[in-house]
Design goal:
The complex is a heterodimer of chains A (202) and B (251). Chain A has 202 residues and is of the alpha/beta class. Chain A is 45% helix and 12% strand. In chain B, 25% of the residues are buried. The model of chain B has no long low-confidence stretch (mean pLDDT 88). Classes of the chains: A alpha/beta (202), B mainly alpha (251).
Chain lengths: 202, 251
């Protein structure tokens, strides 16, 4: 139904195969189907990060050379927009990471942390502009979407690329919390962005 | 006590409900009525002639989303499972959906003219959702479930006709797994439209009730879907494999 099905990229780094397998299992339990890259040592990882970008990185502290906070810093320097989670016995002080799964966490805590890690937006990474209010351009796009036009039609009509339309739609959905076209149409009608008469088949 | 510990045949049915009241409709769908005193799961199942292994799988999967069914799958027939799932479908359509429609109608009835337009939008949206739900449940009742029953019958009788083998090979339950529609998205949208964007309506009580019922329906369908995926689909896969093996079609 949605036009872009790009999988999220996750790096899973731990010395032990069992740990990596466990992490992947939890991902599938919380309903994430990522493209996973696995690595079991620090230096391989650095080479990989130089070439490839990840959305998320889950890392076991056992691969970090001492001092751990410095080696973590090195990694985050290589992967600017990657969200990082570290699995360890305790929080690592003075390091760039704020997400920790601890060895002492039970099943429920681990699952909650993973869920938060993947699904809660980072505090400082809000969508452009005011978080909740649609921009004028977004309202233009919403009007067309709610009236039943395809991305291609909208792009032609407003003289923008399809990719731009898709980005706007993604932002609209994120801001409003409404994913289906029918839902967006109702929103547009409630807010008088469109008229019921202009609708072909609602 | 650890909440994730599975219920067993020795668990008292009353304790189970105290621990998770969302199991009330599930027990109802098995035909169990209240007044069972201190009887255990095993005793109540015997009274009602319910397969206790199946009952436990359903209850545990429903209660704990991380519960994975195990070898108990062998202990009950596909027929048992299908009749429970059809009961659940019927409960959605004959009990849950009408309850929601009642709330919406109540809102319409109490609405002054200026509210009518928005309530009608919500009402139309729900009707659209309902139509999709009906189509989805119908598809399972009329195609998927009979297919599953035919697998079991065929094994019992030891007769494997070509059409069935073809179905297993071309349209096995894995296909159905992939097609499992995402009705939840629409329901989530409806909730958000009411919570965030519907301008205040004068029939606030019915609106609250509507919202609560939508949450309940959503939670129940979520669990139901999980049971289909974790209990039904693996069981059907077992049957499919068995038929392919016995009939020699896999060679």
């Amino acid at each position: 139904m949605e036009q872009e099905n790009k999988k999220i990229q996750v790096a899973v780094i731990a010395q032990q195969f069992l740990t990596r397998l466990g992490i992947k299992t939890i991902l599938s339990v919380i309903g994430i189907e990522p493209e996973v890259l696995e690595s079991n040592n620090f230096y391989d990882l650095k080479n990989i990060l130089a070439r490839q970008n990840f959305d998320f990185m889950i890392l076991s502290e056992d691969i970090l050379p001492l001092p751990k906070n410095i080696s973590l810093n090195e990694l985050t320097g290589l992967s600017k927009n990657t969200r990082l989670m570290v699995i360890s016995d305790k929080k690592i002080e003075n390091c760039p990471c704020s997400n920790f799964v601890l060895y002492s966490d039970n099943q429920k805590e681990v699952l909650e942390k993973f869920q938060e890690f993947f699904f809660e937006p980072e505090n400082n990474s809000s969508v452009e502009g005011n978080e909740n209010v649609l921009s004028e351009r977004e309202i233009d796009i919403l009007r067309e979407v709610a009236s039943g036009f395809s991305n291609k039609k909208i792009a032609d009509k407003l003289h923008i690329s399809i990719n731009t339309v898709i980005t706007h739609r993604k932002n609209i959905t994120e801001k409003l919390g409404i994913k289906t076209i029918a839902g967006l149409t109702v929103y547009a009608l409630i807010n008088n962005i469109i008229d019921a008469e202009n609708l072909k088949n609602f | 006590m650890n909440n994730y510990f599975p219920f067993t045949e020795k668990t008292r049915l009353a304790d189970l409900i105290h621990q998770d009241y969302k199991l009330i409709p599930v027990i109802g769908r098995f035909g169990i009525k209240f007044g069972f005193g201190n009887k255990t799961v095993s005793e109540v199942c015997r009274d009602y002639n319910i397969n206790k292994w199946f009952f436990l799988e359903i209850i545990n999967s429903f209660h704990n989303s991380n519960y994975f069914p195990t070898e108990e799958l062998q202990h009950f027939s596909a027929q048992t499972m299908v009749s429970y799932l059809s009961n659940t479908h019927a409960w959605y359509l004959n009990v849950k959906v009408p309850e929601i429609e009642d709330s919406i109608n109540e809102m319409k009835r109490l609405a002054p003219n200026e509210d009518i337009k928005n309530i009608k939008l919500i009402s139309d949206f729900f009707q659209e959702y309902k139509n999709e739900l009906v189509i989805h449940l119908d598809e399972e009742d009329s195609k998927v479930f009979p297919y599953i029953i035919s697998l079991e019958k065929s094994l019992e009788m030891g007769v494997f006709d070509k059409e069935l083998i073809r179905k297993i090979q071309d349209e096995s339950i894995e296909e159905y797994e992939r097609n499992h529609d995402n009705l939840e998205v629409k329901l989530a949208d409806l909730k958000n439209l009411i919570i965030k964007y519907l301008p205040p309506v004068s029939s606030y009580d019915s609106c609250q009730r509507l919202l609560i019922e939508l949450f309940r329906l959503e939670a129940d369908i979520e669990n139901h879907t999980r049971i289909e995926e974790k209990v039904l689909v693996p069981k059907v896969k077992l049957l499919e494999q068995e038929i392919i093996q016995i009939s020699g079609a896999g060679k």
